[in-house]
């Protein structure tokens, strides 16, 4: 026989609901209690059924509070281990932080597995707005298994997702404990911002353009053209190092200064998955958005938005994210160098501002257009933005009007059967006959990259985007490539096809600028979390990323992608 069971003494109060303050022992005096109202339905206080401790013997002294050990809500009634009544709201008659809300979260596969919440929605880091506060939180990428299993039935969500490798990425820059976190914004909030901006004013145009070679429009998979390696110089200095922007800032032309690749990524940031960072410098009433040398802005991502992106476990592989990024950057530059006719140059009003007299290598076809955008919210304020944009080539009009400006970009195929290909079809067999399937797959797997290109072209005022489809000669070798086809799209139509909202992008830019303008003069860093759809704003020391940090033993430079191209 066990020890006799006796109820503990109950403290009663005639004046208030809950225990009397005079009868509470010292050890429980400062612990808050969950209040409730007379209308609350409590149900059973305790459930003595199915309480079986280790060893199999029933312990009558064990108290099993309903809902605590079964995932139900307080007040729920059970019979035979099954819930009979629906969950009862405890403490509904008063607003308190102790109220329990059961949302039916079921986890499969333990830590790292996907989570499901209300309505069966799944949260993933790999898709836009994958984390919804208060509804569900996902911490794994979805499986790449088809929707139906081998027996023809519908695949259960989360089935065997536990065996998928986790995508835990490192930040684009190490976060120092000395930095001060000022703001944290999730992508769901950024996606709701809106600001309508009128057509810009072109302040000046620099550089020299070559004519696009229309022979590349006749390339097919059966008449492919090798990708050549050409030595050309193309400059992409950060905002603060641009002498033209420095002069415009000295003349107080605008409040905010940036380049098109920095601005376009910020405008399309809710689509981004890979980490990135933007240096923000505030000097008086001016802001400068800068990039780090060797950082994410100097490389092109591959299949960033794929449901099963390239694995990062083997960085030496030619199909790792770092190697693919280097390869895509290499292919993109060489295509833009090759697809122009250098015998038909177009000299712009001013020469290239970055080409010095000591340079010996020839310049690539490139024009820089400095454009002024009005981001003012009301007529009473003045908030202008100067952005340096880039044009890659032009199409002569033949005297029938103004010449057309082009932006040259490339999509590259590495191996349609490799892990991380994102279900892409084989280009050599599908590109000519089923181009729509190829394009739709690229739009899904590279949503962030394509949206960024569309916004860059709109900012520059390009009349068209020329996209080259480039593939490896051999899927197991990343040094030789061929051009399989080209395609021309209008920037505005391409942005609409990608569902890119320019007003949302301008709202993001203005919101980030307003946050920084409220801060004192100094240096700040906007960082995309490597594993969550969140951006954070840090206040950092003025000497950060200037080389002085390495002397203090703190490495700040971003790690360059590994691999060879």
Descriptors:
alpha+beta; 565 residues; mRNA cap binding; 19 strands; 10-stranded mixed beta sheet; disordered C terminus; eIF3d; 5-stranded mixed beta sheet; 2 domains
Q: In words, what does this structure look like?
A:
It is a single chain. With 565 residues, the chain is an alpha+beta fold. The protein contains ten helices and 19 strands. The chain has two domains: 109-166, no CATH class; 180-550, no CATH class. A hairpin with a 2-residue loop joins strand 9 and strand 10 (286-290). Component of the eukaryotic translation initiation factor 3 (eIF-3) complex. It is found in: Cytoplasm.
How many helices in DSSP terms? 10
Order of adjacent strands in the largest pleated sheet:
5-19-18-9-10-8-13-12-6-11
- Could you state the order of secondary-structure elements as H and E? EEEEEHEEHEHEEHEEEEEHHHEEHHEEH
Share in helix: 10-25%
Described by the principal axes of the CA atoms, the overall outline is globular
* Average pLDDT for all residues: 78
How many structural domains in the coordinates? 2
- Spans of at least 5 consecutive residues whose pLDDT stays below 50 are 50-163, 549-565
Annotation, overall tally of beta strands? 19
Looking at the chains present, what oligomeric state does this protein adopt? single chain
Structural class, judged by helices and strands?
Answer: alpha+beta
Radius of gyration: 30 Å
Major beta sheet summary? 10 strands, mixed
Give the distance, in angstroms, between the N- and C-terminal Cα atoms. Answer: 79 Å
The percentage of residues in β strands lies in 15-25%
């Amino acid at each position: 026989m066990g020890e006799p069971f006796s109820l503990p003494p109950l403290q009663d109060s005639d004046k208030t609901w809950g225990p009397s303050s005079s009868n509470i022992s010292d050890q429980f005096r400062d612990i808050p209690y969950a209040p409730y109202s007379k209308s609350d339905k409590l149900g059973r206080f305790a459930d003595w059924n199915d309480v079986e401790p280790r060893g199999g013997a029933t312990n009558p002294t064990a108290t099993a509070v309903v809902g605590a050990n079964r995932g139900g809500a307080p007040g729920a009634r059970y019979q035979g281990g099954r819930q009979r009544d629906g969950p009862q709201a405890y403490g509904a008659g008063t607003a308190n932080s102790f109220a329990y809300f059961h949302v039916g979260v079921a986890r499969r596969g333990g830590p790292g597995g996907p989570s499901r919440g209300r309505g069966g929605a799944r949260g993933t880091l790999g898709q836009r707005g994958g984390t919804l506060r208060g509804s569900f939180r996902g911490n794994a990428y979805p499986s790449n298994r088809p929707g139906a299993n081998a027996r023809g039935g519908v695949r259960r969500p989360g089935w065997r997702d536990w065996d998928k490798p986790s995508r835990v990425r490192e930040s684009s820059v190490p976060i120092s404990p000395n930095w001060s976190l000022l703001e944290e914004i999730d992508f769901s909030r950024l996606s709701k911002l809106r600001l309508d901006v009128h057509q810009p004013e072109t302040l000046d145009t620099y550089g020299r353009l070559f004519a696009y070679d229309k022979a590349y429009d006749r390339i097919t998979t059966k008449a492919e053209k090798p990708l050549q390696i050409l030595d050309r110089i193309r400059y992409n200095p950060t905002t603060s190092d641009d002498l033209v922007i420095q002069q415009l800032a000295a003349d107080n032309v605008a409040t905010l200064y940036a380049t098109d690749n920095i601005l376009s990524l910020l405008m399309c940031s809710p689509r981004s998955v890979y980490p990135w960072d933007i240096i923000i410098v505030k000097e008086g009433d001016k802001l400068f958005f800068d990039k780090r040398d060797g950082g994410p802005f100097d490389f092109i991502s591959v299949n960033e938005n794929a449901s099963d992106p390239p694995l990062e476990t083997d960085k030496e592989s030619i199909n790792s994210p770092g190697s693919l990024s280097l390869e895509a950057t290499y292919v993109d530059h060489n295509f833009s160098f090759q697809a122009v006719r250098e015998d038909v140059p177009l000299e712009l009003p001013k020469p290239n501002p970055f080409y010095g007299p000591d340079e010996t290598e020839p310049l690539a076809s490139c024009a820089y257009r400095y454009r002024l955008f009005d981001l003012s919210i009301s007529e009473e304020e003045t908030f202008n933005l100067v952005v340096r944009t880039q044009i890659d080539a032009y199409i002569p009009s033949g005297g029938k009007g103004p010449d057309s400006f082009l932006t040259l970009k490339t999509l590259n195929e590495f191996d349609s059967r490799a892990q991380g290909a994102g279900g892409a079809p084989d280009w050599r067999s599908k590109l000519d006959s089923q181009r729509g399937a190829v394009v739709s797959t690229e739009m899904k797997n590279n949503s962030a990259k394509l949206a960024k290109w569309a916004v860059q072209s709109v900012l520059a005022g390009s009349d068209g985007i020329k996209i080259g489809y480039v593939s490896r000669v051999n899927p197991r070798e990343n040094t030789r490539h061929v051009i399989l086809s080209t395609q021309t799209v209008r920037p505005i139509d391409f942005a609409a096809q990608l569902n890119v909202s320019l007003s949302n992008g301008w709202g993001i830019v203005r919101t980030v600028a307003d946050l920084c303008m409220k801060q004192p003069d100094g240096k700040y860093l906007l960082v995309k979390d490597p594993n969550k759809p969140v951006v954070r704003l840090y206040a950092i020391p003025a000497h950060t990323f200037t080389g002085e940090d390495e002397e203090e033993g703190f490495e700040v430079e971003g790690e360059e992608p590994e691999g060879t191209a």
